[in-house]
Design brief:
By secondary structure, the chain is of the alpha+beta class. Helix content is 54%, strand content 12%. It is built from 34 helices and 19 strands. α13 packs across α16. The longest helix has 31 residues.
């Protein structure tokens, strides 16, 4: 900075290489130790939290993480030799050293914390780095930073701090773990007590040494250890597996499902359950179905237990040293799931298991996947005094017992005793069962429901590997079956469910979207079940003409047009969403086109109906010269661009030609007539959930403070170059498109739009960059990747395309299109985008829209488009919805690459302004 700069540069050139000679682990350890020391001092001073510069999740965490990566990789990448943190972060991202998700956390966190630090120092007029402890001062800081109150600011600060700290620990810390186990003793009295609780057939099934082993394992059970596992190696790669545990509804399906997970095939076996104790003891826990209640007379000694013994074989046989590890892993997982059953959370246990089973079965080549094999169930109430006997015959498939016992568990059936016999590829099993009340299943109606439910859920479970989220699908299907049996005509509806395509469709639907399950199948079952069950009708799209004709026919027969219109809208939206989920619509553009076409039909119809009602009350709106006042309803945003996706809101602007009066008996001003028209339009279209078909009028002049309907004069005054509109508001007009009303007046509005947007001044890049920085600061939670608003997200892509449209649209009329997809194509045709830029930008647009849709379809929320952390199950579900199957690393790489490309292209083509 001062002195002999030439000598200083020479000194740096000599010293710099020495910085990169240390081992990576030493660099990490030294820097981490220094940071720990700083934090220790802050703890002593009581300033560890809220310390913006040096505390936990602070600016120093970001700088030290960045500098450690620079020191480790700087020897091979000279471009990392920069003193500027943000530049270093960008280069680490470009080199692939720092993943996009970590870069997003550090980049947005650094901008956020530096802004906070700057405002702190302005507020206190001296160098301070600690958040105020005084509530009034914290509130003042929050308001200065643009937050509505201190609570919302503190929440955003904590999000960033936690996310930054997680990334810091990832690169500068490490930490390990190990488990343990134990074993105890046995006595003749304990063996006697064990035998007293089991059916007489148990003594003939097992020899004395085995009974002693079972007794010993049962004595090891307690509240913290609800299951014990013993595996004995036999000849010919066979194993005898003994599982002793407390009895819970669904325990057997958990045991069998986990065997499938670990690729262990059941060849035969016996399952026994303790019978009711003869004499009560002091207090304890009794299991009723899958719930618990305190009752007198049940101790841990006295509680029902299971004795399950299977002959099994690995598929394929692992190397001998791996056997112990497999059994250890199996035992650990079984204990975790059994613990959930013990806590009264059977659905959670079954759901987690469904995910595990599906992840394994997806990896296997299973020729029977998607094929529903016949299953014979014979119900016999004469073979046993206390239990109903189910005789099962079917073809053996991977995980059959898991699938079938899951069906019984979800139907609240207890399996007391089971004999498993496999001969070749055939299964002939005998299951002794009771209803959840412990009694036989004797009612013919209940027997029929049992038979149907068990078969359906068995088949449904067989199809689960194809579901994006097997856990959600299995739990929802259990509820669906319960709902089904509460309907008087369930047997008729059942006929359509027995089709493999319909069951497969339900697997996809229930595993893809919690929203569609809750809102459609639960709330509108009667109207929408036919859409799901009429499989052939989902094969083909409906044209706009067909939709108009169908809606007109329904309205002609209905006394309530609003109710009919909304039922039509919901049914056709569901149909389009189902076509998308089922893979009947290939390509994002086709899905947008179908959805946008439906929305146009709905609004054109509502527009006509609302206008007619107001006209009947007030007459026709007229201009001072006596002519009818033209009006047009325009779409903006994704609706204007015909690029609607799942859960998109509908951005509208209703414009009319000018002031005047209506010519009816109850005369009102034109502005009042059209304001009421907007109000009635909003009231006529029912949004089932926030963001789903929700009307958004915020793009009108003055936003929520302006009139609902926009006069031509107000449009001209507000959006003209000298008007008060912000540059981004004029930018939004690019996507203005007349939907219905006066076509001639719509053309006039478009001509004005072109005059105001495509000017000699071009595109204000500085204003756009400032806008994007505000969006990232206020709309992106710390540590998250928001597909729309994070750096390189959809907002950056759309602003890039619109910026290029504005910059070149005065010269090239073809760029004045409301469609981002069309604009990208035109920019390429005109040579503004190179071939490679065009292909990458088109791919990035399709990819980001698909990710947003995949996030919205499960959440049913237009606003929540944060990508789950890459290590979570939710990220795996997202990958499956996007057809990545289990290649989560590939999805993460695509997220990184597309967002990085959008950022780089925006800088390259638009600059900083």
């Amino acid at each position: 900075m001062a002195g002999n700069l030439e000598r200083g540069q020479a000194y740096l050139a000599e010293v710099y290489p020495l910085l990169f000679e240390f081992e990576a682990e030493r660099i990490r350890a030294d820097v981490h130790a220094m940071k720990q020391k700083t934090e220790q001092e802050l703890r002593k001073a009581g300033r560890i939290h809220g310390e913006v510069k040096r505390g936990i999740g602070s600016i120093r965490d970001i700088e030290f993480t960045t500098q450690v990566l620079q020191l480790i990789h700087g020897a091979h990448h000279p471009q990392l030799h920069t003193p500027t943190t943000l530049v270093a972060l960008h280069r680490l991202l470009a080199l692939g050293i720092l993943p996009a998700e970590d870069h997003a956390v550090l980049n947005s966190g650094y901008l956020f914390l530096r802004t906070v630090e700057h405002h702190l120092q302005i507020q206190h007029y001296h160098q301070t780095h600690h958040l105020p402890t005084d509530p009034a001062a914290l509130q003042q800081l929050a308001l200065r930073l643009g937050y509505r109150d201190s609570q919302s600011f503190s929440q955003r600060y904590q999000q960033h701090s936690a996310a930054i700290r997680a990334v810091y620990r990832k690169y500068l810390e490490l930490a390990p773990v190990t488990p343990n186990s134990n074993t105890p003793a046995i006595s003749p009295e304990k063996v006697r007590r064990h035998l007293a609780r089991l059916d007489a057939s148990y003594r003939t099934a097992f020899a004395e040494p085995e009974i002693a082993l079972h007794t010993q394992l049962s004595e090891e059970l307690d509240r913290t250890q609800q299951v014990q596992v013993h595996a004995l190696s036999l000849e010919d790669d066979l194993w005898k597996l003994t599982i002793i545990g407390y009895d819970y509804v669904g325990a057997l399906s958990v045991i069998c499902g986990l065997l499938s997970v670990h690729r262990i095939n059941i060849l035969g076996g016996d399952v026994f359950t303790y019978e009711h104790a003869a004499q009560p003891q002091p207090s304890g826990l009794q299991i009723t179905g899958a719930r618990y209640r305190r009752v007198p007379g049940v101790t841990t000694h006295n509680r029902a237990k299971i004795v399950d013994v299977f002959t099994v074989r690995f598929m394929p046989a692992p190397a001998t040293p791996a056997n112990a590890q497999i059994w250890q892993a199996y035992t650990q997982e079984l204990r975790e799931l059994t613990s959930l059953l013990h806590q009264g959370k059977p659905q959670q246990a079954q759901g987690k298991l469904a995910n595990r089973v599906a992840s394994v079965l997806r990896e296997q080549v299973n020729e029977s996947a998607g094929v529903l094999l016949p299953l014979d169930i014979e119900i016999d109430n004469t073979a046993s005094e206390h239990y109903t006997l189910l005789r099962i015959q079917t073809t053996d498939t991977v995980g059959f017992l898991y699938e079938f016992t899951s069906g019984l568990a979800l139907f609240r059936v207890n399996i007391v005793r089971m004999e498993i016999v496999t001969e070749g590829n055939r299964i002939e099993d005998r299951l002794y069962v009771t209803a959840s009340n412990g009694k036989k299943i004797t009612n013919p109606k209940h027997q029929q429901e049992l038979r149907v439910a068990a078969v359906l859920i068995k088949h449904f479970t067989h199809l689960l590997p194809s579901a994006p989220n097997p856990e959600a699908a299995l739990v929802a299907f259990g509820e669906f079956i319960g709902d089904l049996f509460r309907r008087h005509d369930w047997s008729r509806e059942l006929l359509s469910l027995e089709q493999p395509q319909v069951l497969g469709g339900l697997v996809q639907l229930l595993g893809a979207s919690e929203f569609l399950w809750e809102d459609f199948l639960r709330m509108q079952y009667t109207n929408l079940f036919p859409v799901l069950s009429d499989w052939q009708a989902l094969e083909h799209p409906k044209s706009v003409e067909t939709l108009h004709a169908e809606l007109s026919a329904e309205l002609a027969k209905s006394p309530d047009w609003r109710k009919t219109l909304n039922a039509f809208k919901d049914r056709e939206m569901f149909r389009t969403d189902m076509r998308r989920i089922q893979g009947k619509i290939v390509g994002y553009g086709r899905f947008s086109a179908e959805l946008s076409g439906l929305v146009e039909v709905v609004f054109q119809t509502a527009f006509d109906q609302v206008y007619a009602e107001l006209k009947a009350l007030h007459g026709e709106p007229r201009l001072p010269d006596g002519s009818v006042c033209p009006v047009v309803l325009c779409g903006l945003g994704k609706f204007g661009g015909r690029e609607l996706g799942f859960a998109s809101d509908i951005e509208l602007m209703l414009c009319f030609a000018g002031e005047g009066d209506t010519d009816g008996a109850q005369t009102i001003r034109n502005s009042e007539f059209f304001d009421r028209m907007v109000q009635n339009l909003k009231a006529a279209i029912w949004a089932k959930q926030e963001g789903i078909f929700e009307i958004d009028l915020r793009l009108r002049p003055y936003g929520k403070h302006g009139r609902l309907a926009v006069s031509l004069e107000a449009f001209e005054r507000y959006f003209a170059p000298q008007g008060p509109a912000w540059s981004y508001e004029r930018q939004a007009l690019i996507r203005l498109r007349p939907i219905c009303g006066s076509a001639e007046f719509g053309e006039r509005l478009l001509a004005l739009r072109d005059q105001y947007v495509f000017t000699e001044q071009g595109f204000d890049v500085s204003a756009m960059r400032a806008m994007r920085e505000r969006q990232m600061r206020h709309l992106v939670a710390g540590g998250s990747l928001n597909v729309k608003f994070s750096a390189g997200g959809l907002a950056d892509l759309e602003y890039l395309v619109q910026g290029l449209q504005i910059r070149h649209g005065l010269r090239y009329l073809s760029l004045r299109t409301p469609s981002v997809r069309t604009a990208i194509q035109e920019l390429h045709q005109l040579g503004i985008l190179s071939e490679s830029q065009f292909l990458q930008l088109k791919d990035a647009h399709n990819f980001l829209r698909k990710v947003i849709d995949a996030l919205r379809v499960v959440r049913g929320n237009a606003k929540d488009v944060n990508v789950p952390a890459s290590h979570t199950p939710q990220f795996a579900y997202l990958a499956r919805r996007l057809k990545y199957n289990d290649a989560t690393a590939t999805l993460q790489a695509d997220l990184n690459n597309h967002t990085k490309f959008v950022q780089q292209l925006s800088q390259e083509l638009l600059g900083n302004g």
